[in-house]
């Protein structure tokens, strides 16, 4: 899922864009934080930081960086209350906030936290600030519990985002804003083509890794062959680890047995796959058509987690496979003329490095085109680097119109990623209020371009990892208003996840399963 890299728009804060990895551990963390404030994402600067350090320093640096980011805005407000005069130099502010984290959250000894932070100010060539840094940190060190309570009392979000969440989620606001300060659990998706969730849990037990099975139930209403609403349900199982673990410690991870994927993200592929199976089953009941080829699209597919999950389901040798569409509760043999014989899968994303990431993930999971051919599944996979606002399948780029070719579309839409702040705390620094409007316009452009390429009767699943209604339910309401051939598929009370919306369901990162913030809406296209 795409995350925009937008630098904070504050004319007083102009950190250097050069990321120099030398000096003490604290200096390297400070420089990393300066790079993030200058628009670089945490994912792009974390590895350079850790790779520059000795093994014994990596744990402290990682904890210091992540905790500073999680408490960033609360620390900034605390700092403003402690200073007699405004502190405009971003390097000085960042240095003091790194010192505050050591005193308030990491329980570093007072003398070490203060001395090393003062030395860091000298090392980044801001020696003139050492008196100020020393004075503020010593004041906090005299009563750290008092200042931590003050820091924890309110949210640690930019004020514009906190205000928007108050508007969107007034009932959940306090719990939500506090929850976004906490680290998120690690979830695993088990590759059903390799092993079962239960068996992989046993394998984790053998590796002394504790994990719980999480099961999410999804129900939605679809039109059956008589055009009356019928409910269908599906179950999605994943594993939630008690403690985050390095992937190289997971059993058979390199062999594709499992993937790291949030539990709420694991809903996407099963939902669109089940909807497509219902559509195909109804078509087999209604006609004697011998058109046994289906075409599916994963738009904005990088880094490929949902695409891989869908391919696992499509190619599985069980009831979740499109090769085993059921009709009248009797499985259709793949040898009959009415069974699915060919599946075309197209995945698009607009950045070449992200396309390469998709290929790497599929390679590990044995889901590359070569692997699919070797498995003798009639699945053709095509990964395309293209802009989803303009790309049209099988058409000249200058074509004025596009045509319906897809039976199902999974749109993992670009968003502000506010639902994954727990995993990417830099988002609260990088995002601005203006980004919401710009992102909503981008989403609308993608929807308007892809919708005409969906066949009548086909399904589009709209997914974001945002918790802002403008990008989610309000986007869908606007889309429905302008597309008379779009019908909302209603999620039923069988769903044990998310909050019902006027259209779709919204997961918040505060539910009992502790998954990330995701939004889901399922649409079906009617005949014109």
Topology:
Layout lengths: L24 H13 L4 H10 L3 H16 L1 H11 L7 H15 L5 H14 L6 H12 L2 H10 L5 H10 L4 H7 L7 E4 L6 H10 L4 E13 L5 E13 L16 E3 L7 H19 L6 E7 L5 H11 L10 E2 L2 E2 L10 E8 L2 H13 L4 H6 L4 E7 L20 E7 L14 H4 L2 H18 L3 E11 L8 H10 L3 E4 L9 E2 L4 E3 L10 E8 L3
Parallel strand pairs: 5-8, 5-10, 8-9, 10-11
Antiparallel strand pairs: 1-3, 1-4, 2-3, 6-7, 11-15, 12-15, 13-14, 14-15
Helix pairs in contact: 1-2, 1-3, 1-5, 2-3, 3-5, 4-5, 4-8, 5-6, 5-7, 6-7, 12-13
Could you explain how this protein is built, in words?
By secondary structure, the protein is α/β, with parallel strands linked by helices. It has 18 helices and 15 strands. It has helices at 25-37, 42-51, 55-70, 72-82, 90-104, 110-123, 130-141, 144-153, 159-168, 173-179, 197-206, 268-286, 305-315, 352-364, 369-374, 427-430, 433-450, 473-482; strands at 187-190, 211-223, 229-241, 258-260, 293-299, 326-327, 330-331, 342-349, 379-385, 406-412, 454-464, 486-489, 499-500, 505-507, 518-525. Strands 5, 8, 9, 10, 11, 12, 13, 14 and 15 form a nine-stranded mixed β-sheet that branches. Helix 1 (25-37) runs antiparallel to helix 2, helix 2 (42-51) runs antiparallel to helix 3 (55-70) and helix 12 (268-286) runs parallel beside helix 13 (305-315). The relative contact order is 0.11. The model is unreliable at 1-17 and 326-338 (pLDDT under 50).
Binned, the helix content reads 25-40%
Task: Quickly give the structural class.
Answer: alpha/beta
**Total number of beta strands:** 15
Radius of gyration: 25 Å
Shape: elongated
Largest sheet: 9 strands, mixed
Query: In what range is the share of β-strand residues?
Result: 15-25%
| Helix count, DSSP H or I runs of 4 or more residues | 18
Distance between the termini: 32 Å
Spans of at least 5 consecutive residues whose pLDDT stays below 50 are 1-17, 326-338
Provide the residue-averaged pLDDT.
89
């Amino acid at each position: 899922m795409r995350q925009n890299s937008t630098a904070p728009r504050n004319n007083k804060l102009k950190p250097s864009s050069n990321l120099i990895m030398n000096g003490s551990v604290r200096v390297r963390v400070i420089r990393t934080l300066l790079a993030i404030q200058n628009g670089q994402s945490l994912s792009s600067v974390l590895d350079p930081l850790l790779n520059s350090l000795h093994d014994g320093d990596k744990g402290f640096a990682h904890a210091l960086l992540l905790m500073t980011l999680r408490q960033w805005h609360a620390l900034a407000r605390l700092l403003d209350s402690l200073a007699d005069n405004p502190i405009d130099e971003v390097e000085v502010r960042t240095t003091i906030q790194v010192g505050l984290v050591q005193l308030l959250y990491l329980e570093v000894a007072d003398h070490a936290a203060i001395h090393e932070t003062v030395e860091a100010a000298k090392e980044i060539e801001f020696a003139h600030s050492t008196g100020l840094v020393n004075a503020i940190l010593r004041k906090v060190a005299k009563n750290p519990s008092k200042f931590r309570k003050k820091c924890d009392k309110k949210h640690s979000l930019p004020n514009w985002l906190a205000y928007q969440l108050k508007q969107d989620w007034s009932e959940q606001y306090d719990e939500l804003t506090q929850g976004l300060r906490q680290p998120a659990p690690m979830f695993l998706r088990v590759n059903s083509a390799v092993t079962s969730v239960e068996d992989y849990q046993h394998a984790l037990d053998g590796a002394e890794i504790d994990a719980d099975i999480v099961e999410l139930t999804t129900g939605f209403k679809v039109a059956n062959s008589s055009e009356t609403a019928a409910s269908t349900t599906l179950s999605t199982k994943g594993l939630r680890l008690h403690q985050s673990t390095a992937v190289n410690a997971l059993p058979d991870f390199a062999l594709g047995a499992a993937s790291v994927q949030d539990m709420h993200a694991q809903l996407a592929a099963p939902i669109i796959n089940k909807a497509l199976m219902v559509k195909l089953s109804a078509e087999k009941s209604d006609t004697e058509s011998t058109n046994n080829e289906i075409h599916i699209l994963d738009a904005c597919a990088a880094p490929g987690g949902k695409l891989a999950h869908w391919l696992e389901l499509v190619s599985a040798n069980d009831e979740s496979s499109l090769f085993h569409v059921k009709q009248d509760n009797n499985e259709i043999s793949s040898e009959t003329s009415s069974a699915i014989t060919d599946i075309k899968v197209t995945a698009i994303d607009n950045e070449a490095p992200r396309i390469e990431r998709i290929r790497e993930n599929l390679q590990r999971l044995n889901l590359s085109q070569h692997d699919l051919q070797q498995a003798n599944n009639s699945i053709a996979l095509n990964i395309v680097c293209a802009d989803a606002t303009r790309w049209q399948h099988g058409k000249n780029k200058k074509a004025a119109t596009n045509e319906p070719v897809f039976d199902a579309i999974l749109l993992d839409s670009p968003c502000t990623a506010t639902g994954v702040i727990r995993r990417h705390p830099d988002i609260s620094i990088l995002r601005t209020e203006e980004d919401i409007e710009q992102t909503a316009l981008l989403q609308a452009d993608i929807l308007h371009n892809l919708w005409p390429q969906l066949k009548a009767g086909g399904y589009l699943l709209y997914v974001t990892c945002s918790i802002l209604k403008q990008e989610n339910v309000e986007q869908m309401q606007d889309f429905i208003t302008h597309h008379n051939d779009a019908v909302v598929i209603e999620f039923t009370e069988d769903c044990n996840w998310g909050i019902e919306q006027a259209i779709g369901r919204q997961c918040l990162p505060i539910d009992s399963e502790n998954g990330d913030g995701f939004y889901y809406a399922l649409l079906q296209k009617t005949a014109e």
